[in-house]
């Protein structure tokens, strides 16, 4: 079997990664591509867990900025992540990958409740886990949920799939002179306010020495290259 750099990964997908070229919603072609890439990585013996956002359907922060109660807006956002998780689960199972959706709050008709030991057992049995509903608490982002779940299941790394190639000093979508970092320290991300993950998530990773790799999920094969040890995107450690 091919030697891999990581044995257990947590893949963090933003809701926006599922939109493709649309302004909102889900591009089923993108979902199928992500599912096939996860399958290829899992076939190498890598255990895969996924945390998925809901920004393609509903953004709690922007809704609260428009006057909606923040806690209510965040709960609606958590429900959006469940929709995305079920769609990804369907795409994965159509490729022949066994999956489990585990929700931070109870929805027994749709998903299993999150239990850490059960999650680890699913991984050992070569099932892909999709963690839905964030942490189950308002005011915490799915980035923080990714950091928390990664530490609970003892993942080797968080792989954050985005729409750009890595972390830049400026917004690469607006500024052509933006410079991409290949390596960063946690403290520099916090100090310079770089948009990797939110500060709570970065602090959790820093305290527990969990590396983060930010990469472009839209480039075919990137996930496999990282798992095999290639230096892709930006590594925060």
Protein architecture, described:
The chain has a 9-stranded mixed sheet with strand order 4-3-5-2-1-6-10-11-9, with helices on both faces. A two-stranded antiparallel sheet has the order 7-8. The chain has a single domain, classed as Acetylglutamate kinase-like (Carbamate kinase, 3-Layer(aba) Sandwich), CATH 3.40.1160.10. It contains 8 helices and 11 strands. The longest helix has 25 residues. It is α/β, with parallel strands linked by helices and 237 residues long. The model has no long low-confidence stretch (mean pLDDT 93). Strand 1, helix 1 and strand 2 form a beta-alpha-beta unit. It starts with 7 loop residues before the first strand and ends with a strand.
Task: Summarize the topology.
Blueprint: E1 8-13, H1 28-42, E2 47-52, H2 60-65, H3 70-94, E3 99-103, E4 112-113, H4 116-124, E5 128-132, H5 142-152, E6 157-162, E7 167-168, E8 180-181, E9 183-184, H6 186-192, H7 199-207, E10 212-216, H8 222-227, E11 234-236
Parallel strand pairs: 1-2, 1-6, 2-5, 3-4, 3-5, 6-10, 9-11
Antiparallel strand pairs: 7-8, 10-11
Helix pairs in contact: 1-3, 5-7, 6-7
What's the CATH topology name?
Carbamate kinase
Helical segment count: 8
CA radius of gyration is 17 Å
The structural domain count equals 1
Report the portion of residues in β strands: 15-25%
SSE run = EHEHHEEHEHEEEEHHEHE
- Give the termini distance in whole angstroms: 28 Å
Anisotropy-based shape? globular
Structural class: alpha/beta
Largest sheet, in brief, is: 9 strands, mixed
Rounded mean pLDDT score: 93
In CATH, the homologous superfamily goes by the name Acetylglutamate kinase-like
- Beta strand count: 11
- Highest-level CATH class: Alpha Beta
CATH architecture: 3-Layer(aba) Sandwich
């Amino acid at each position: 079997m091919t030697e891999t750099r990581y044995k257990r990964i947590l893949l963090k997908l933003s809701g926006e990664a599922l939109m493709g070229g649309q302004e909102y919603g889900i591009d089923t072609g993108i979902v199928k591509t992500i599912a096939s890439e996860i399958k290829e990585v899992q076939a190498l013996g890598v255990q895969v867990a996924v945390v998925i956002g809901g920004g393609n359907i509903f953004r709690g922060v922007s809704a609260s900025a428009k006057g909606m109660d923040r806690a209510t807006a965040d709960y609606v956002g958590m429900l959006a992540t469940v929709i995305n998780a079920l769609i990804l689960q369907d795409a994965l199972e159509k490729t022949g990958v066994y999956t489990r959706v585990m929700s931070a709050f109870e929805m027994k008709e749709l998903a299993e409740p999150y239990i850490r030991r059960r999650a680890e057992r699913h991984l050992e049995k070569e099932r892909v886990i999709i963690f839905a509903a964030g942490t189950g608490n308002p005011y915490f982002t799915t980035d923080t949920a990714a950091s928390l779940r990664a530490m609970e299941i003892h993942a080797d790394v968080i792989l954050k799939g985005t729409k750009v190639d890595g972390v830049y000093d400026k917004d690469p979508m607006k500024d052509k002179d933006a410079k991409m970092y290949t390596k960063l320290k946690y403290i520099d991300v916090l100090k310079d306010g770089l948009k990797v993950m939110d500060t709570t998530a970065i602090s959790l990773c820093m305290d527990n020495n969990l590396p983060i790799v930010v990469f472009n999920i839209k480039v075919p094969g990137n996930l496999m290259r990282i798992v095999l040890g290639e230096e892709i995107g930006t590594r925060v450690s």
